């Protein structure tokens, strides 16, 4: 039995959910998101809550049960609060700057990296060494932050590169004479 799947997803005030077949659409103050569940689960909206039930006792149905409930919880959180990832840039001369819809990154490469920000996500650079990725879609926010980080992952000797704010970089000791 899925412990996560058993819990109903509460719908706060101002949030509505509509189910049509296997598709659920959640509307809130920040926007509208939808999710199409697999055929292994059943979605039910009742009493200001969404419940997910497996249709069988197969392993796949139990996997989809907990996953579907978590995705629906992320939809509700996204349309009410939104999601945010903070990135830090460490290194001499490493910096970020927003120009219109393009994030310009100086990362010690021979050229400047121009990162096009996709629709549905807001990227800001409040400081030259800080980048904020915000949006209502959890998956999209995480993917955009990962794509930015991919340009220069933090290295273990000096910690230079782009890292998440709460990420710990395991540091190595350099060569000894």
Written overview of the protein:
The structure is a single chain. The protein is elongated. The strands form four sheets. It has a four-stranded antiparallel beta sheet with strand order 11-12-7-13, covered by helices on one side. It has a three-stranded antiparallel beta sheet with strand order 1-6-5. A three-stranded antiparallel beta sheet has the order 2-3-4, covered by helices on one side. The longest helix is centred in the middle third of the chain and has 22 residues, at 59-80. By secondary structure, it is of the alpha+beta class. The relative contact order is 0.14. The N and C termini lie far apart (58 Å). A hairpin with a 2-residue loop joins strand 5 and strand 6 (49-54). It folds into two domains: 3-80, Alpha-Beta Complex (Outer Surface Protein A, domain 3); 83-164, Outer Surface Protein A, domain 3. It is built from three helices and 13 strands; from the N terminus they run H-E-E-E-E-E-E-H-E-E-E-E-E-E-H-E.
What's this, in brief?
It comes from Halocynthiibacter halioticoli. The chain is α+β, with helices and mostly antiparallel strands and 177 residues long. It is built from 3 helices and 13 strands.
What is the residue-mean pLDDT, rounded to a whole number? 93
Shape: elongated
Beta-strand share of residues: 35-45%
Annotation, overall tally of beta strands: 13
CATH top level of the largest domain is Alpha Beta
Q: CATH fold name of the largest domain, please?
A: Outer Surface Protein A, domain 3
Order of helices and strands: HEEEEEEHEEEEEEHE
Structural class: alpha+beta
Q: Pick out the low-confidence regions.
A: none
CATH superfamily of the largest domain: Ribosomal protein L6
Largest sheet: number of strands, sense, barrel closure: 4 strands, antiparallel
Helix content: 10-25%
CATH architecture of the largest domain: Alpha-Beta Complex
Please give the count of helices. Answer: 3
Give the number of domains: 2
Termini gap: 58 Å
Q: Largest sheet, order of strands side by side?
A: 11-12-7-13
Cα radius of gyration in angstroms:
21 Å
Function: This protein binds to the 23S rRNA, and is important in its secondary structure. It is located near the subunit interface in the base of the L7/L12 stalk, and near the tRNA binding site of the peptidyltransferase center.
Protein name: Large ribosomal subunit protein uL6
Family: Belongs to the universal ribosomal protein uL6 family.
Domain Large ribosomal subunit protein uL6 alpha-beta: 12-82, 91-164
